[in-house]
TrEMBL record:
Belongs to the short-chain dehydrogenases/reductases (SDR) family. This is Short-chain dehydrogenase. CDD domains: SDR_c. Gene3D superfamilies: NAD(P)-binding Rossmann-like Domain. The keyword Oxidoreductase applies. One of its GO terms (cellular component) is membrane. It comes from the Bacteria. SUPFAM superfamilies: NAD(P)-binding Rossmann-fold domains. Keywords: Oxidoreductase.
């Protein structure tokens, strides 16, 4: 019987941040956890680690097409058919090379789709079910990069800006329901996705600390969670810089 276990779904379960969030959840209590990934072998490796940490938990592995809207709809409908969900974390994405995106429209299209459109499709597929059940928390990982377009990563920032605007609209739609929508905005975090930034000397937040803050924010149902919290102030300054000042910055 799994009825008394909190039901959690993670889309993009092989991301480092998602994996560490899952470790925290299973350390708190036995859960019913569905892990969605693009590669079943990699997702199974994440699940194997979690099983050792929490033998009492229930784990499901699903391989998905993260681009096809019909496949996403079918996948989500199948998950929800087994019972309403307590927490959905949409965590997938990639960090594209801005210079490549400027030259290669296929790479640009892929970056916008994976980081913007796909997370929105997953959220929209879950949102209707959660609204009908009038319960649950839907969390989406955006990025501080979505707060203001910068020449160093504006394609990625545009995709995450889409996630931000979508989450705001979804929060408005569900404001008078029992569903909470949490938009998570991490700063640069020490994960395999940012390994090249680390090699360049960038200061990155630890993935363990970022995951702790995300899980805490989801538990509290905060509308927006900057992780670490200092990025709320940093991005407020960046958003309000006059254009003539901003355009002189190498960021």
């Amino acid at each position: 019987m799994t009825d008394n276990k909190k039901k959690i779904v993670i889309a993009g379960a092989t991301s480092a941040i998602a994996e560490h969030c899952a470790r925290l959840w299973v350390s708190e209590a036995a859960v019913d956890l569905t892990l969605i990934g693009r590669n079943s072998d990699r997702t199974e490796r994440v699940a194997a680690d979690l099983r050792v940490r929490s033998p009492q938990s229930v784990f499901r592995i699903l391989e998905a097409d993260f681009i096809d809207p019909l496949a996403i709809r079918q996948l989500v409908d199948g998950i929800v058919a087994e019972g309403s969900v307590d927490i959905v974390l949409i965590a997938h994405g990639s960090l594209p090379d801005q210079a490549v995106c400027q030259q290669d429209l296929t790479a640009c299209h892929e970056a916008l789709t994976v980081n913007g459109i796909s997370p929105v499709l997953f959220a929209e597929a879950f949102a209707g079910h959660m609204q009908k059940a009038n319960r649950g928390t839907l969390a989406m990982i955006g990025s501080v990069a979505g707060d203001r377009g910068r020449k160093s990563n504006y394609v990625y920032g545009a995709a995450k800006g889409l996630v931000t605007r979508y989450a705001q609209g979804l929060q408005h739609r569900l404001a008078n329901t029992g569903v909470k929508v949490v938009l998570i905005k991490p700063g640069p975090t020490d994960t395999p996705m940012t390994a090249h930034l680390k090699q360049q000397g960038a200061r990155l937040a630890s993935v363990e600390n970022v995951a702790q803050l995300i899980v805490k924010g989801i538990t509290q149902g905060k509308p927006v969670v900057y992780v670490p919290a200092k990025w709320a102030l940093i991005m407020m300054v960046i958003r309000h810089l006059p254009r003539f000042v901003f355009n002189k910055l190498e960021i």
